[in-house]
Amino acid sequence: MRIIIYSFILIVCCSCRQSSERLEHAFQAAGDNRAELRKVVDHYSLDPRDSLKREAAMFLIENMPGHHTLNGPYLRGLRHKVDSATNSFLLGKVILMQPLRDPRILRQLRPEPDVEHITAEYLIHNIDEAFRQWTTYPWLEELTFDDFLEYLLPYRIGNEPLDYWRDSLPPRQKEHLQEAIAYFDDRKHSVYNMGQMIHGYALGMDDDSRQVAEIPYNASECVFSSQLQLLAYRSAGIPAVIDHVPAWADMNGFHEWALVIDPKNNDILGGQLEMKNAPKVFRRTYSANEIPMPETNEYIPPFFTSPYNRDVTDKYLRTRDVTVTPASPSHSENTRHVYLAVFNGKNLRPVDWSRVKRGKAHFRKMGPGIVYFPLYFKGENPRYYSYPFILQANGNILPLLPDTTRLQTLKITRKYPLHHNKVYHGNALVGASFRAANDPTFRDTVRLHRVEHNPNMYPTVIPVDTTRTYRYWLFEHTKAVELAEWQIRDCRGRNITGKIIDPTGRGARLDALFDNNPLSYGRIDRRLIVDFGHPVSVSSIMYLPRNDANGIYPGNEYELFYFNLDGWQSLGCKIADSYEIEFENVPSNAIYWLRNHTTGNEERIFTISDGKQRFW
Question: I need a labelling partner for 320 at 20 to 30 A (CA). Which of 111, 311, 329, 470 fits?
Fold first, then answer.
């Protein structure tokens, strides 16, 4: 028992000492503003009943170094325009946060550290208001003190200017809150349900501030909407936070969302996010989290220089731990940190880090079903610690080591996966038919082709009997559909066009069907006729559903790469002469990347298994 008590006292003392050290560090960083911070702690030290407020103040001050406001003449000049363009305080506040994401504007701004500028009056007001919510709103009865500190107490959500945003809730929303307090029902007024009410208020804010042309923004864009929702939640006494995926592993871009913290639902609520190939999910916190500590002149990727991202991947996914060994001993020499990266936006983007211990890098809570690239940095240049690998759902690692002794020939038809949202246009074509006739009433019609299955964005070529000639060529369906291309070719294989006739008069952009551009498309309302003026001999017709142009197209130049420890290795460039392209002498068991140098932006890496292309 004495050992247990001694151990407990030792833990408490160590914790207090660490807290005291962090507090003293903040006081030292404050410089001339130290007195203001000291005033806040002293204010809550007078009455024993304020002990929790004192702890809250210490939490804010201890974690304050690193938090700052970005400010400058540019933003001050925009503030008046934004204020005059919207009646919503929170909406205007979030609009002014959007320029902080623009690197060109960031160069015009300077950081104003909170520890050097924040006032005791502001901090005390924020703490008192947060405690008033916590102690008087009945839906917060089960909110723990630790969750209160992280999800309701913080006075800022980013690098925005400090203001009294907690006092900005409109009268109508205040009435709803008072009504919920007076007639509290723990089911009707759960934290989640209260959040739904405030979520609707945030979405319904007047967006006439689009008049401020200097700040283009999209109210439905994830960063904007999550910031607006978070401020609306916390101003109404709803504990909330922003979670985010820094880089998707199966497509370009990132995502973030505001999350209501409901103690009864362990944070994550069903249906809030359909998580797919997320390598990592991070939570933006006010408190500092562990980040790589660089040695002299060691480069750290920018994402990992911020301590305000907490790994919560295991709240969303069944994660796996990974241990990576170097491909050779030379890769681990003088290597302090190793990163796992995913392919995103035609680059390798680090999503997690590990210290090298005993020549190995250990990564925790990784999303499965993803290709990862282990790398480290020499200066700002990436070097490859080991070969890329597939982290399978069962936790097994499948290395992708190029085998140059087993070469293969690849026939490739796409450079980007066919996602579910792109399948729709092909499904809509099923049941359509192509006909030809010499009678404008189509009494002598000949059906050349009926669409029996989804072409999945691939072109379909239909051979035609060249011994017969027809003047009228008809596309018909029972509903309106969208086509990217309808090519009619003569006996020499040349595209020929006639007069376009739209019997319903409700088609749109019909010229786009014949412009040889797979990205443009026309809308056909059930029927479309091409009249050549006289019977013509046709060798084939080709049709293409509304398209993303990520297939292979004649005349476009493509280059194939595979990955080894020296990075991406080219297997040469080719001009496509059909709707597939072939590359010979390709190493097996590698990760590949097909690039289109003629047009297009979307490109994904892929593997080959049993001759089939699998995108990652």
Answer: 329
